[in-house]
Amino acid sequence: MHAVTADDHPAPADRPVAVLANPTAGRGRHRGLLPRVLDRLAAGGRPVRVLAADTPEQAEVACHAALADGASGLVAVGGDGTVHLVLQAVAGTPVPFGVVPAGTGNDFALDAGFPTDPLAAADVIAAALRDGRSRAVDLARVTGADGGHRWYGAVLAAGFDAIVNERANRMRWPRGPRRYDLAILAELARLRPRRYTLTLDGERIEVDAVLVAVGNGASYGGGMRICPAADLTDGLLDVVIGGRFNRRTLIRIKPRIYPGTHVTHPLVHTYRARTVTVAAEGITSYADGERCRDLPVTVTAVPAAVRLLR
After folding, report:
1. pLDDT tens per residue across span 12-58
2. At what angle do helices 34-42 and 118-131 cross, to 10 degrees?
3. Is the pLDDT of residue 8 over 70?
4. In sequence order, which residues have a C-beta less than 8 Å from that of residue 169 and are 6 or more positions away?
5. ∠ CA 60-80-115 to the nearest 5 degrees?
6. Contact at 8 Å (CB) between 200 and 273?
7. Contacts of residue 154, Cβ cutoff 8 Å, sequence gap at least 6
8. What does residue 107 show for φ and ψ, rounded to 5 degrees?
9. Calpha distance 33→35 (Å, rounded)
């Protein structure tokens, strides 16, 4: 991970640091911490400005506007969904980015080396601001059939987990985590391998699979190490394919994803590539846990696409 110093990218001390905070992240358990997080961030010697937004769409617009107004850094206080919104603005820019992990899933923050404790993470970010220090890591860029693109930091899911997410998002009842549990049961009942066509750096593969993940980082879903060998600084994507699982095999292998030992199963295959195209009928991909693009998509590893305040 390459360290960038203040001499490389000087930022005037009067330029504010913009903060996008999601009060509902982690089911609200860190809601009361925000004033203390902001105090810790202010120790970095820059003005701290909280962005106002009521919806994800407004949040993304606010992040872009903060950069246009000259923000010297952006900080996400929340989980992977909040990180995902900020990445759409900071990716490919010299503006550094920090994460205060306060969500249900904090996969990118932890893979990127931020402390798990929100206040400790805020202290790390403040020290980086004070010292004018940032570190470059890779991101992945997803391009859909319409030419539109999204950035992500952790993992793109295009198999069973994406299908479950899509079902859960269509359900109006029940609210909360029970909805996701019911979506899993419904999709397990109709589980079947799907036919995928993948192109990895020009090499075409056709496979029947249940799990397909393209990782810039190692984990998704709150610590499931689906792409355990992924490295945020190697300029490559890790592709993990789980083949013709039946229900019993899938249920047995899911716990092995947390430590990353699922990759030793004979039906699991792993690849590395700089560019990956994933095609299948009727599947919507999810990146950083957020609804992304309908397949087919092309994912490209972009080295040093974002600078981290750590």
Report:
1. 667 999 999 986 665 556 567 899 999 999 999 999 999 999 999 99
2. 20
3. no
4. 291
5. 120
6. yes
7. 80, 107, 108, 111, 215, 216, 217, 219, 220, 287, 288, 289
8. -65, -45
9. 6
What's the predicted TM-score (pTM) here?
A: 0.91
For residue 212, give the nearest of 201, 198, 191, 224 by alpha carbon.
Answer: 198
* Angstrom distance (rounded) from CA 83 to CA 75: 9
At residue 169, the pLDDT reads 83
User: Is the link from the previous residue into 16 a cis peptide, with omega within 30 of 0?
Assistant: no
CA distance 310 to 262: 31
- State phi, psi for 102 to the nearest 5 degrees: -145, 25
Residue type, 63: C
Omega cis (within 30) before 174: yes
Give the integer Cα–Cα distance in Å for 221 and 203.
Answer: 29
d(C-alpha 38, C-alpha 47), whole Å: 10
Cα-based distances in Å from 178 to 8, 94, 153, 257? 49, 41, 27, 21
- Read off the pLDDT of residues 281-306 as tens digits, 9 standing for 90 and up: 999 999 999 999 999 999 999 999 99
Query: What is the DSSP-derived secondary structure letter of residue 79?
Result: S
- As a whole number of angstroms, the distance between CA 287 and CA 282 comes to 17
Residue 65 and residue 36 in contact, taking contact as beta carbons nearer than 8 Å: no
Cβ-Cβ contacts under 8 Å for 137 (sequence gap 6 or more): 1, 112, 232, 233, 304, 305, 306, 308
With beta carbons less than 8 A apart as the criterion, state whether 205 and 243 touch. Answer: no
Residue-wise over 180-215: b if at least 16 C-beta within 10 A, else e?
eebbbeebeeeeebbebebbbeeeeeebebbbbbbb
- For residue 33, which amino acid is it? L
Of 198, 232, 200, give the one whose Cα is nearest residue 218: 232
Residue of 307, 308, 309, 303 whose CA lies nearest to 138: 303
